[in-house]
Design goal:
Helix content of chain A: 40-55%
CATH architecture of the largest domain in chain A: Alpha-Beta Barrel
EC number (chains A, B): 2.1.1.-
Oligomer: homodimer
GO molecular function (chains A, B): methyltransferase activity
Largest interface: A-B, 125 and 124 residues
Pfam families (chains A, B): MTTB
Number of domains of chain A: 2
Protein name (chains A, B): Methyltransferase
Low-confidence stretches of chain A: 1-14, 17-22
Family (chains A, B): Belongs to the trimethylamine methyltransferase family.
CATH superfamily of the largest domain in chain A: Trimethylamine methyltransferase-like
Number of strands of chain A: 20
Radius of gyration of chain A: 24 Å
Structural class of chain A: alpha/beta
Largest sheet of chain A: 10 strands, mixed
Strand content of chain A: 5-15%
């Protein structure tokens, strides 16, 4: 009796405790994913070798353009490339050799050391949507993004358990002048969150501002010795490297900060309409970009990027979450691993105008593919809508919830004695049930992924509660998370110094809106 | 000039032709998927051997129950098993040995030979949802299913390009007596479609009716020599085989028709809460079931089934499209291949009450997993809603469209000269674009998967057209397909004989509604 009563109290105290647990606001962040599952390898060795040989042929025969960048041409000439105007032709083997000084994995430090991430190897780091000029939510519809929206997204990313990274331009704060908004965005990432973040790439001077602000946040010496930012360097596919992107890359590389070298591919427009042809071009472009990055500073961290979408040949519209993009990404992952480089792809890709079933199918296709393709850094892992034109608040929390699925898939299968569960099978036997057995009681809390959003209730309960669809549940969750946001602590002197830097920089130049 | 003009006519005649092509109703059915991609192998050899050893231990030490089935107990005793009441303990190695006479792949014939499917090997055959007592659509909401609904689903499956199979109990026609509805369902599959279908398993006499009606449709001799039906034999997990299911299995096996032997697992309730433990039980159950099937008739076609969901440990509700179910299915695929048996899993699994984003995330997770897990027969590949309680019309066409993604993913990467596209990359060069190049023109029609449902239009066009979400587009597509349905031809004498059989059978027994 006493034992039963104690057990009842022990579990029953649990009644209130469990309710509290369910309603408490978690600002826990899961550790970045360490895969305990294999990668999906879609290309055999013969196919990989053909593509690698062809990419070298492209670099050697066709070459790449470095536009408006005499310093880059000089670096290439000194390294042994053939220069013809802005065209750089790279002798077979040279680009791959130059890439070999880039690290296969590196740590990106966060100001909260518990939030630092290791990019590369078997790891997967998840970062939110990047770049949309518009935002959308249920209350306000589709509209130009503002700094207020930006701050809300940074708060949501901070509150999202399965997001490891605060991202960069989560949306474009269009109410701030173009030449100053990077300062406000960086300040937001640095003060409203303690997760790692990305630097500005829209101008070399803004990249330098990013490095300088990190000097205030982390200390200048720390920044010179460690990587505290990733940055997104898009290649103007096909085969073109512009001076703005390369100028920013030069700043980051010189300061030992990480560059994602990403071909920007709409298949059939910026690359051949075939998967193998696209992979060939992607590899040639990334090798040229990373090689250049290593010419600037050997050993600087670089990431093999692949932004891949298809095209609707009827309308010319880009399409997302399609099988051809998946095939390219699987192959690109293999090519990246053979270069010993960390690999980046995209996550919540979709073409839908609403966070509806189309958006969810396309996004789930991309997220599953990203995990299986061995991606190390997944940009746009939540919140992307309408081909990247819109950052959507509801979709942000819907996708962020699905990122938990990736964490649990990556655990793979535990095959130890507890995983084998032979005692449970013996205990329950034919016709029994497992709910009450000792093994279930010992393991149920961690056994299954549990959504923080989706509805598993019986039909009648769900109907009584107003027949809420995923969109409505997501609206509620956005509101809940923003209402319960608590700013992480930051040394007031550092916060003040950052604000002063931003104010001074802003005062030093006139507003520019283009 | 003449050449240009001819070319223009040639392509321009295409203007009207292309429009006609876009609006024409296709009743084309794609060939079943023949994978040109590897399977995803999540377990290493050591883990597989542990699970296989443990499954044999379960069969030998714990055993399985064959309930109310003296004939089964006799068969097992004669084969060398240890019988204790209804408990059958199977000596180590015996079940696997008995399984070895089942074919690794087999043809299921359709009455239209072009629609016959090969189940096993690298193939994937897609069949619709099975079993829901309710249906839902935008116009009528959620309601009990009727025979009229059933017929509509058979028509939709017939009209769906990516569905290879007409399925079985696509929904339960609850307006027809329980003891007679199998007759109407079979007649529907046989006359409204020419795709392959499934037989009844709710009573051995209904299995026999299924065989007899196939005798009329295909000819009795053909049926005895060929497989013309699959049937779904659920195991009452854990480790229990009831007399109704086994009685139906006996009828099908004796007549050389295919049985899917499927543990019915809600993880944590009918199986251990761990992945490896669930796999152990699944393997033990399938081996016992297929072994029994082979005791009835060596060489009869059998399929290794796995119906796996998780449980929400808070509410006890089953959950679908979860990572743990995926891990089990990946592992089960490997175990099936090591038994040389075709493998079945489920497709459009979801727990949502509506065909909303939750439903789409969960379904896409399951569909992608099914392709990668090496599934050979995917039941419920479209239309499943609310944990299988509802067959949803809109979701049916939404999911059926996504099945095209699986077809295109399965193509893998073409690495021939055309796939390599080196001429295209040389032709376009740095800064160019591929839309007009020769390689794109030659390949664009087949290069990319094209949805028949999803919206890729620019925001403004989409807004002008009424801001339709996926659900609305799906409502339109259901209506379009049903309005354009054309019944496939059938020999009038056969149609008459089938109707007469159904009428006679119905007249021979009183209605039963339970």
């Amino acid at each position: 009796m006493a034992e039963a009563s104690a057990r009842k109290r022990g579990r029953g105290g649990g009644g209130a405790a469990r309710r509290a647990e369910r309603t408490a606001v978690s600002i826990e962040t899961a550790k970045y994913i360490e895969r305990n599952i294999p990668n999906f390898e879609i290309l055999n060795d013969e196919a990989l070798e053909i593509i690698e040989t062809n990419a070298e042929t492209i670099l050697e025969e066709v070459g790449v353009n470095f536009v408006d960048n005499p310093a880059a041409l000089k670096r290439w000439r000194d390294a042994g490339a053939d220069i013809d105007g802005e065209r750089v032709r790279i002798p077979r083997g040279l680009a791959r050799k130059l890439c070999s000084t880039a690290p296969s994995e590196f740590t990106q430090h966060a100001r909260n050391p518990e939030r630092s991430v290791v990019i590369g190897g078997k790891n997967l780091v998840l970062a939110p949507v990047y770049g949309p000029p518009f935002v959308r939510d249920a209350a306000g519809g589709r509209r130009y993004a503002t700094m207020d929206d930006f701050n809300k997204f940074v708060k949501l990313a901070y509150m999202s358990k399965w997001l490891h990274h605060s991202g960069g331009t989560v949306c474009e704060p269009t109410d701030i002048p173009v030449n100053k908004r990077h300062l406000d965005m960086l300040l937001s990432h640095m003060t409203l969150s303690d997760k790692p973040f990305m630097g500005s790439v829209t101008d070399p001077s803004r990249a330098q501002d990013s490095v300088d602000m990190c000097g205030i946040l982390f200390g200048e010496e720390f920044v010179q010795q460690n990587t505290v930012m990733t940055s997104l360097t898009n290649i103007n596919s096909p085969l073109t490297f512009d001076d703005v992107m390369m100028g920013s890359l030069e700043v980051y590389a010189e300061n030992n900060q990480a560059c994602i070298i990403s071909p920007f591919i709409v298949g059939g427009a910026m690359a051949p309409v075939s998967v193998a042809g696209t992979l060939t071009q992607v590899l040639a472009e990334v090798m040229a970009g990373v090689a250049y990055n290593q010419l600037v500073r050997p050993g600087a961290p670089a990431i093999f990027g692949a932004f891949v979408s298809s095209i609707d040949m009827g309308s010319g519209a880009p399409t997302f979450g399609t099988p051809e993009a998946s095939l390219v990404t699987y192959g690109a992952g293999q090519l990246a691993r053979r270069l010993n480089l960390p690999f980046r792809s995209s996550g919540s890709f979709c073409g839908s105008k609403l966070p509806d079933a189309q958006a969810a199918y396309e996004t789930a296709n991309s997220l599953n593919m990203g995990l299986m393709a061995g991606v190390n850094f997944m940009l746009h892992s939540c919140g992307w809508l309408e081909g990247g034109l819109v950052a959507d608040f509801e979709k942000f929390v819907m996708d962020a919830d699905q990122l938990g699925v990736l964490h649990h898939l990556a655990k793979g299968v535990q095959i130890d004695e507890n995983g084998q569960a032979m005692d449970a099978i013996r205990e329950v036997g034919p016709g029994g049930h497992y709910l009450g057995c000792a093994h279930t009681q010992a393991n149920f809390k961690s056994a299954f992924w549990k959504s923080n959003l989706l509805d598993y209730k019986p039909f009648e309960t769900w109907a009584d509660e107003g027949e809420r669809d995923t969109y409505k549940l997501a609206t509620n969750r956005v509101e809940f998370l923003l209402n319960n946001y608590q700013q992480p602590a930051l040394d007031p002197a550092v916060a003040e110094a950052l604000s002063a830097y931003v104010a001074e920089k802003k005062a030093s130049m006139p507003d520019a809106f283009t």
